Amino acid sequence: MRKTLIRPTSRRSLLRGLGAAGAAGVAISILPRRGFAAEEKKLNVYNWDTYIGETTLQTFKEKTGIEVQYDLFASNEELFAKLKAGNPGYDIIVPTDYTLADMIQLKMVEPLDHSKIPNIKNIDPDPVFSNPSFNPGLKYGLPYMWGTVGFGYRPSKTGEIDSLAAIFDSDKYSGRIALLDDQRSALGFALKFLGYSINSTNPDEVAKARDLLIKQKKHIKTLAGDNGQDLLLSGEVDVTMEYNGDIVQVQAEDEDIAYVVPKEGGIVWIDNLAIPTGAPHPGNAHAFINHIHDPEVNAELTNTIQYATPNAAGRKLINPDDLKNPAIYPPAEVISKSESFAPLGDALRLYDEAWTAFKAA
Amino acid sequence: MQDWRKNKLVFAILMAPATFWLVVFFTIPLAIVWVYSFGGRGPEGQTLIRFSFDNYRRALEWIHLGIIWKSIVIASITTAACLVLGFPLALAIAFAPARLKNVLLLLVILPFWTNLLIRTYSWIAVLRERGFLNFGLEWLWNQADWTLTLFGMPDLMGDFQPLRLLYNLPAVVIALIHVHLPFMVLPLYATLEKLDKSFLEASLDLGASQWRTLFSVTVPLAMPGIASGVLLTFILSLGSFLAPDLLGGTEGLMIGNLIAHQFGPSRDWAFGSALSFLIMYATFIVLWIRSVVNARSEAGAGL
User: Fold this and answer.
1) Is B239 at the interface with chain A, CB within 8 A?
2) Which residue has the higher pLDDT, A214 or A39?
3) Residue A42 binned pLDDT confidence (cut-offs 50, 70, 90)
């Protein structure tokens, strides 16, 4: 996922960001909650690894005097598990759409005060961003970055790939395919290929997707937890299901790598800035969200991490090459066919059992 | 040794830290997991506390029993291989000259100084298609090809096709053997080291061959060590999580991975707890059988 950005620039930027923030350590202790207006000039941010601009934290401190303590998580599951038993002291978290939806249900996030975030006007007015189904009216969070799940592949070995048939109805790439080791993504692609929704809660449809995966299992070399782009880069596989940003990052190292969202549609995700319940510095957190959506700050951030920004004003200022890159900003017709994950509630068990059956087959 | 009843206070003070540690960091968490195992999963992944056997019923479904069975088979193969490799090794160390003994033992323990994650990852570098093993094979292949060309048979062998050594069960078993071998060698060594060598001399003096002595005298005498080593290796490899996850590809699903999955993406801590306890119950039963067998054989020896 977005946790394995290995470009040296971003590693450095992370360190510099930490230095600028004067963070003594990444561990966060339980901080007393301040009920009065003047919050101490501190903010505890919990974000994905290498998912921040080179100067984002520095300019935030210059503007507001607030020091950022920066801490990292590697998956939505980790984020959820850490906050499940109560907020350990974070002010800002960055959950993905379906995780945010669950957190809203469980009252793990606080409603935002939009009057404290004037830059909300910069958010793309497209309802996908300004009024998403998982977070109506942006009540509990603002979009941070968005992207897709599709295929990274090596054109010199595979030729052009544009369809899910490459993995679900073909033995052409037998033994050269990696799928994401994520039940919802892998089964979601199978559902999509069969013409169903990635959020299907129909047991028959999920069963068909399971049978399809089991049928194709012999052609699949491995399940990539977090390293599909590395498997592709090292020549271990020629086709890998991956997050677009991960593939864009290795494209910088190897020109013979392409990314495509299958024509049947892929998975679109949106990460969100949210304030967890019991945040010690909610005022500062609002200021931080506002800062992220400042057009210039947002452009610098987006240029660094090369994901797609939902900030329309910032998009005008970013590197034009990135804007033209279909791996980062896919064409509208691709997006219209793609879907986002919705929380499944109790139906998640269908996927769980299907996934176990696939792995045990 | 002094009886603890005679000096209760001293023993109480000495035992307090360990007891505290075990209760706070082992017994209580374990009790919580046990309570969870009767609970349920809320629609957003909350753990609901209630009392039902649903999770156990689910854990005993065929598919899960199949995964447990597969884990038992993998653990058995690992244990058997460790025994076959470890016994001669332990024997050699036990009978090595004193000054060599410590060095050899150190070599056995040395891998422990490297993190388990690194030891497991290193197999990726060895086994993958562009890994060390395939590089070595490719070199040999090219040498052979070159030699054949020299004898007027060019292009007979064609290009080297790397072997698919990674992302399958053999890769998992290889890594598990590597990781668990010391757990077999150390108890074996401890037993063989203490073994009364005069029994072996007697056996040889009385005309038994080396092989006969090994299988009729040494192995039976080493039985306690073999039992500890087998039990330790088996239990540890049964719960393996890392090796199947990293090296198993689509085939790598052991019970440990299934449990981890319940605590992660499935957010079904209750079911995960039930699976964990199922393994724990099974382990307890094995240990209980062992102690019964031990008690019987001791009683038998006493007669």
Assistant:
1) no
2) A214
3) very high
Q: What is the pLDDT of residue A2?
A: 47
Q: Is A230 on the interface with B (CB under 8 A)?
A: no
Position of tokens 């491995």? Answer: A222
Phi/psi of residue B41, each to 5°?
A: -110, 130
Q: What is the mean pLDDT of residues A60-88?
A: 89
CA separation for the pair B72, B94 (Å, rounded): 31
Q: Do A356 and B70 make contact, defined as CB atoms within 8 angstroms?
A: no
Bridge partner residues of A177 (DSSP): A220, A239
A 236-275 residues inside an 8 A Cβ radius of B = 236
The candidate with the shortest Cα–Cα distance to A150, out of A164, A168, A133, A135, is A164
Cα atoms in the Cβ-side hemisphere of radius 13 Å centred on A88: 14
Measure B46 CA to nearest chain A CA, in Å: 8
Share of chain A above pLDDT 70, in %: 89
DSSP chain B: ---TTTTHHHHHHHHHHHHHHHIIIIIHHHHHHHHHTT-EE-TTSPEEP---SHHHHHHTSHHHHHHHHHHHHHHHHHHHHHHHHHHHHHHHHHTS-HHHHHHHHHHHHGGGGS-HHHHHHHHHHHHSTTSHHHHHHHHHHHHHHHHHHHTT-TTSS-SPPPP--SSSHHHHHHHHHHHHHHHHHHHHHHHHHHS-HHHHHHHHHTT--HHHHIIIIIHHHTHHHHHHHHHHHHHHHHT--HHHHHH-GGG---HHHHHHHHHTTT--HHHHHHHHHHHHHHHHHHHHHHHHHHHHHHHHHH-
Give the A:B interface size as CB pairs under 8 Å: 75
Region A142-166 average pLDDT: 93
Q: pTM surpassing 0.90?
A: no
Chain A 196-225, CB below 8 Å of chain B: which residues?
A: 217, 220-223, 225
Is residue A246 within 8 A of residue A23, CB to CB? The reply is no
Mean pLDDT over all residues of chain A? Answer: 87
pLDDT above 90: residue B200: no
Residues with Cβ within 8 Å of A217's Cβ and at least 6 positions away in sequence, in order, are A358, A361, B250
Tokens of residue A271, six digits: 């990460």
**Mutation for testing the A interface, residue in B44, B168, B169, B172 having most A CBs under 10 Å:** B44
pLDDT confidence of residue B296: 81
The whole-angstrom separation of Cα B25 and Cα B9 is 24
Shortest CA gap A42–chain B (Å): 31
Residue for token pair 């449809």? A205
Report how far residue B225's alpha carbon sits from residue B87's, in angstroms, rounded to the nearest whole number.
10
* pLDDT value at B157 more than 90: no
What does pLDDT average to over chain B?
A: 89
Asked whether the beta carbons of residue A77 and residue B264 sit closer than 8 angstroms, the reply is: yes
Question: Is A303 within 8 Å of chain B by CB?
Answer: no
Whether residue B45 and residue A353 make contact (CB cut-off 8 A), yes or no, is no
